[in-house]
Predict the structure.
Amino acid sequence: MSVSDPIADMLTVIRNGCRAKHKRVEVPASRLKSEILKVLLKEKFISNYKYIEDGKQGKLRIYLKYTPDEKSVISGIERVSTPGLRRYVNAKNVPRVQGGLGIAIISTSRGVMTDKEARKLGVGGEVICKIW
């Protein structure tokens, strides 16, 4: 795993875990990853997550969610803002994902939230990723 973009690494682990039909995956823990997972849990893209202490930085265990016919709830996940090219939007230009069927996760001055919440509060910020 690369260390230059830990958020992209987490999204890749989730994407690969969904394709391989794993029940759970683990990633190294950080506060931003935890906030992103909180949004994914609230929007019902994952079934649960928990922090596991390992004596170092800790790990986040992510429990993936599937439909009754074993299809992943997450059909697409894409990193938008990268360390080399940050993508910021103002409150008027908050993106819609798949015509409102997906979500964009945005890091704002009021915390990490979905595009719908950012639009409602009238805040912009860094677009972290899109999920549908």
Q: What stands out?
A: The first strand starts at residue 24 and ends at 28. The mean pLDDT is 96.
